[in-house]
């Protein structure tokens, strides 16, 4: 494809794309995404159109309000495209939304949404609105929308403070967490970058309380205070002008028979509520016993197995897994399913219909399990095979492979896989090199524990690290950073519904919560999985032979592909040669025509032209010689696909012939040939006249 065609093709594509984008943007800008909610209840959630106002005031909406000063009923008009106008239109369109009380403040000449009913609940005096994630500084009746915005009107405060659950005593240290409201999902998240203050009421000015202590929050939105005397205090966020404040009561310290003492005890939550976490998981259990998916069901089985109770739920999940629902086809899929079965007491040698131990051994190549480029399939494989009573080469070689994959910093890539390796290798601690590897892994995990949170990177890694700590025979109480343990981090991530990572997808929350339960109970996989005897009959024969056969087949396929590539290159070169032969043919034909003329002047002109033709031909040959280099780049373009087809190539050759024709002086030769035919005709006519 020449440069002109490429430009034309790209221009056409850009025109079509630009038109589509313009139409889409135009459609988006003519509407506003408008949502009204109060907690979990949504009164309105749909796009509303911008109303085109031709004559000012013609489309205004009349609002029935109450004067805040006199208490009298008043009528006020608002623009249909103001936030209040949209709110009134949403009220009219939805049966789940009623604006029950609206006040008018004459001093500000502004309307105030006092009360509204969303669903079955009425909320008063604390309505907020947000436009494109920004809280405007003007009233809803003064903010004009232009189209394309996303607007949320919600009841409640944008921020909140979470106080300690335990009763505070005088002199105790305690923690307060600041949280930010996520109006899209009705969830609370970490609020950082603010300062929390401890206050006392000001008898002279109730709107300006007295500051006693202030403390900036950490990355988890938490501040630590201590040394308060018995009494009642107010707590608030300074950036919110301490509104609304939260009341805090501090009781007198208990009297002690012995003197001395000094300082209070830091009050940190010790761990997440495991019972609530399990209840959260079971809220997703289906009638067939599954929890979200086969993948999530496997991990949830490990959480339920370690939890005392919920026997009926365990039984239904066991029945589901016993139906041999496919876990996948990778070695790690077989290993995960075997772990789930063994945790629930189901024999992995075939009680569910599939011998997962044999499947794992089938992927053992004599040196390691599964992919030689991965170590996770070896770590989980070793764990399962050990608990399944397998001995011999599969255990020894896989252990050696895992040890060889440990990095100089003591890790196996990251916190999570290092924690998994610790749990597996702790079961073969007598194997040469394992004690040293475990010691190096511990040092790595220690270096990765975060000062601010006490956790490890995220909920998933923290849970596995807590299991690794237990596998090392240690308690998380010995793993404190800045007074916080990994369990404190999990506790912070637990929401009121019992699940972790509030605001995330249900799939991720179930996944993270399934990990957290064994971690919180400090139970490594080696303790969760039941042991099973090897019944014999399982083969540990490496799959090297089959891999060699597969490798041989792969080599044959690669050889065939190489030959195809050579053929394609030869076809491309042949096409170029055809073009060159065609050009030579045209040149020879034109030279023959010139020779027939016999006119010295024309012949001299032809020689001069031939010199130009020769130069042009050499230039064309040089360009065509480079065409093979450009072929690969052009083949990747969608626009070149047409020109690589049969019809496209014909048109390309025809076009090249036309260009070549004019480039070599074809138009001049046509005129010359026409003149020759004319002269010949005149001579014949003259000869005929003389003869007659």
From TrEMBL:
<dbReference type="InterPro" id="IPR008930">
    <property type="entry name" value="Terpenoid_cyclase/PrenylTrfase"/>
</dbReference>
<protein>
    <recommendedName>
        <fullName>Squalene cyclase C-terminal domain-containing protein</fullName>
    </recommendedName>
</protein>
<keyword id="KW-0175">Coiled coil</keyword>
<keyword id="KW-1133">Transmembrane helix</keyword>
<feature type="coiled-coil region">
    <location>
        <begin position="550"/>
        <end position="577"/>
    </location>
</feature>
<keyword id="KW-0812">Transmembrane</keyword>
<feature type="transmembrane region" description="Helical">
    <location>
        <begin position="646"/>
        <end position="667"/>
    </location>
</feature>
<keyword id="KW-0732">Signal</keyword>
<keyword id="KW-0472">Membrane</keyword>
<feature type="signal peptide">
    <location>
        <begin position="1"/>
        <end position="27"/>
    </location>
</feature>
